[in-house]
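Same chain as my last thread, 196 residues:
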Amino acid sequence: MTTRRVPSGAAVLRPEMTAAITEAVLDELAEQGFSRLSMEAVAKRAGVGKSALYRRWASKQDMALAVIAEFSVAKATFPDTGSLRGDMRAALDALMDWLTHPRFSRILPDLVAEMARNPELAALVESMTGGPRREQAAAMFQRAIERGELHPDVDMELALDLLAAPLYWRLVVRAVDVGPGYLDAVTAMMCRALGA
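reply #2:
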């Protein structure tokens, strides 16, 4: 009976190495920005060779977007609390954690500026990050419709925009701290605006 040798080296993508690379990508994006991000700097920071990066991603853009999407979509939590008010408040908490994350709070404004200059990048970010986050939020609103808390003909696109807009505007555009009670006030106002 022969035993099969387990592949090693280039044939295996080690999870601990991928985790180190992911952390290095986020650090480099936060410090250098998207346009100055380099495969060389990420490899050096992660303590790996550039070949380890190229085994995972074909380009700097692929690498950056994959890491941003993985980080961002994981931060989109929309638990079913049993009520629209509870669901939206939990969603706002998760959105706040995402927007105020020590690294991501520096990555996002730079990425948005880069997207304004690069329509291809904007489309990729939307498909990999924006779209999946909006799908999860839409499921939250759909639950509210099924519970009878929202009218079935609610403007879903507007509801999705309303969910993120106040917090994004306050934290990212205006760079103003969110004081106590702000998320409760936003939740109450959105419920009224949506006719809940």
